[in-house]
Amino acid sequence: MKEFLKRFFSFSKPEQLGLVTLIIMVILFSLVKYFIGFLNPPQKIDVNELNRLAEEINKMPKPSRYSNYNKYSKSESNYDATNKFDYRKTKKYFKDSLFYFDPNKLDDKGWRELGLSQKQALAVLKFNLKGNSFKRKEDLKKVFVISEKFYQKVEPYIKFESNSAEQKFASNQLKENDFQESFSNKNNFKENHKLKEFEFIELNSADTGVLKSLKGIGSYYAIKILNYKQKLGGFIKKEQLLEIPEIDSILYHSIKTDILLDSTLIDKMPINKISSFRLSGHPYFSKNLALALINYRDRNGKYAVKDDLKKCLLVNDKIFNKIVPYLSFE
Known about the structure:
By secondary structure, the chain is mainly alpha-helical. The longest helix is centred in the first third of the chain and has 27 residues, at 13-39. Helix 5 (108-114) crosses helix 6 (118-129). It has helices spanning 2-9, 13-39, 47-59, 72-75, 108-114, 118-129, 148-154, 163-173, 186-192, 208-211, 219-232, 249-255, 276-279, 287-300, 317-323; strands at 201-202, 259-260, 269-270, 327-328. The chain has 15 helices and four strands. The radius of gyration is 40 Å and the shape is flat. The protein has a two-stranded parallel ribbon. Among the domains are: 81-160, no CATH class; 183-263, DNA polymerase, domain 1 (Orthogonal Bundle); 269-328.
């Protein structure tokens, strides 16, 4: 039994060396920890200082989730949060600019002076354009952009004019408005409009002043039409007016019978000289189409006739008919 215990608890020389080494390492680590703590004693916590800091934090005002909006509480007291559009986001907001007006005749500038934004003013005019004339003051509430607060502000200044005054107003002011009460009645319009029957406007040579002579066209739409005409180089079909995002089918059908188009005034682009960059600036030429046409020209020579365009892989019949009127083949 003694021999068994002796063999079980005895260590060989390598085992004895390893055990001694382990003991020495434990002692060394203990001494290092002691000396580190001795050289860097922990700082004492000043309880009084902590209490003082806690009191200062408690005295600080708590931030509000609405604190960023406080700056508008006084300077923008007329702002109505129930409105669909934010008056603070438009530069054309005139505060407390009140005057007597007839809602059936007021243009977009007048509505903006009363406090509406550009989009709200156009919404009111479009409501009137659909034949919804204002017969009573309360009818103004039917327009979804008109809030109760705005209505209460302008209600004392709403004043409907007589029919005779209405005819006089239409004669003098119709060309300045984007929409008119007489819009839906073509016969009444021709009596009030400065254009006489069988008198038309040539669209490709008209400037903004002439365009405003058309029914339903004011400065806003005249500028949009003129800008798109310059991008195209001129109109070849009346239906191209519908490509202008701001012009809907109602406005288009009201003016299409009063306009003519002179195709000789089209500003054509020389396909054999123009760069792909300039060509892609045209509404009908995407970057890929312009690049394909110019690359084909550079590889195969100039386009002699218009049918040569069909040799380009990206030009189908629809695109061909659309772009040919705007190209020259010198």
